[in-house]
Records
---
Amino acid sequence: QSVLTQPPSASGTPGQRVTISCSGSTSNIGSNAVNWYQQLPGTAPKLLIYTNNQRPSGVPDRFSGSKSGTSASLAISGLQSEDEADYSCATWDDRLNGVVFGGGTKLTVL
Amino acid sequence: QVQLQESGPGLVKASQTLSLTCTVSGGSISSGGYYWSWIRQHPGKGLEWIGYIYNSGSTYYNPSLKSRVTISEDTSKNQFSLKLNSVTAADTAVYYCARDRGPSWFDPWGQGTLVTVSS
């Protein structure tokens, strides 16, 4: 059971906008920045969003992140088939004194 | 461009010690400001942070694994290593090394290496 809660699955059709939520508590998301990772099938995770809403160079602006209170969200607009992947959120937990991850959300492009 | 590459045995017997090394190229692990990390992913599951080494040898571990984990570095080889002792089948996972800009800002990652614990 992961400290951060994500829906196990999400789906959308090409061109649609989808959002993936990441729910935590005051000791983690409520106090620290959230980062998001994309993991394509059979590959290592890749940084997608850092510090809540910043995109590393090379990440399309179709991907955006936000945080409010003890929850964070990843939004993908103009969905493309190559976006089919697992998406995970991560942050520091002040109570557990460590990095915590969400369980991951498998995004299917229909 | 910094790149990381894990290496080590893909099969470990139960009760023994899992040992992995991460070789860093394109940058020095001695440069400040980064936390050199280990993360694992059980088959079909989410990611689990194991711990990191930083500041020329300081370490910080996941409390749930702390009693069995040691992370060390060899700056002459630009490598850092993971040792996990008394392994069981529950330690079967893909193990990744990554650079953390702190905290939980992991970039880049190694390709990962599958370690299977056999009985």
---
Amino acid sequence: DADVTQTPRNRITKTGKRIMLECSQTKGHDRMYWYRQDPGLGLQLIYYSFDVKDINKGEISDGYSVSRQAQAKFSLSLESAIPNQTALYFCATSDWARQSSGNTIYFGEGSWLTVV
Amino acid sequence: DAKTTQPNSMESNEEEPVHLPCNHSTISGTDYIHWYRQLPSQGPEYVIHGLTSNVNNRMASLAIAEDRKSSTLILHRATLRDAAVYYCILREYFGNEKLTFGTGTRLTIIP
């Protein structure tokens, strides 16, 4: 089983609909992130959370919201989806408490979202 | 956040060494240099990281300039499976960094 699991893996939705992408992790990490990747481009940070009570905006948070329901769960919502939000979305986790691990970032497999 | 600069793309022949450069002239003393790679249709994966000294692991080597303003990821013997986008990022030691990724370097391996 993957350490970082994203659901759904693929979704087509209509303009104006609300869509939620969910992420869960089994690594016990405190930090979680949501990134967006447009075809052929790099990763852009949408939101990040250092613990359950700490949520921060990233580079491109407009049009998105997040919820950290528990240490292991971090969901991303598009309240009213628009076509230019069509992209590949990645959830990631990191643990700064364990220096010996090299503070590695672990990514999920991605969720393809198409807004028509 | 300190930024990194990488070439957009590079090509290398299979079974030859590859040197992927990264400039980070605004690096601070507490920033670690991390490298990740993203294979097609996958999420990024960790490759290697370092602070001041050169580092080696089973995947690659990391050479860090003495002034730490640049670094080079070295793949000693490239294979077709190394074709990916390679990202160089800076991470604060226990900092509240945002973990911002640039566009990376797209590495093409020529058979």
---
Amino acid sequence: SQQGEEDPQALSIQEGENATMNCSYKTSINNLQWYRQNSGRGLVHLILIRSNEREKHSGRLRVTLDTSKKSSSLLITASRAADTASYFCATDRGAGNMLTFGGGTRLMVKP
Amino acid sequence: NAGVTQTPKFRVLKTGQSMTLLCAQDMNHEYMYWYRQDPGMGLRLIHYSVGEGTTAKGEVPDGYNVSRLKKQNFLLGLESAAPSQTSVYFCASSRDGSGIRELFFGEGSRLTVL
């Protein structure tokens, strides 16, 4: 079963708007990662947030983590058409466990 | 610096045929993984390896075998392909399995079993 579940499954916005994707998980984690997948391509690591962190920024990306609610959100500000992709969260429960990926959010940014 | 390379990129098989997918990484990573991606299912781990000569089962290992004879290569084999194995297969690698694991992915191998 999937450890991470993304919400929404699909999101369509206009260029310049902000996009927010959410990830919920079931068990305690060591860290949570977000990956991006362009159509027909492999996944690319975007950002990682550790379990003792609440917020992290990288360029136009902002990730939050609420361990009490077992949830994370990825915010992409001032979206661009090139941000059109699927975004996956992956939970890492630490040594001895493998990363578990959610089903992904398909983001479409219309020019 | 190629990163993670998968071959072949596309393959069509008939039910019962066998094939091998090859994954090669040039980052000297210890850990390597094979995932399959199906619509609405995200990525599911098939097998993984924590070092040369070692392999372990993931979430969906049935019908697949793997080998890691060299540190840089991780092979995924289908002994007798079934239509349920139609999927996109991704290989990934990471520096190690402890601490912070960032996975580096290949571009995928699209397999169709008729």
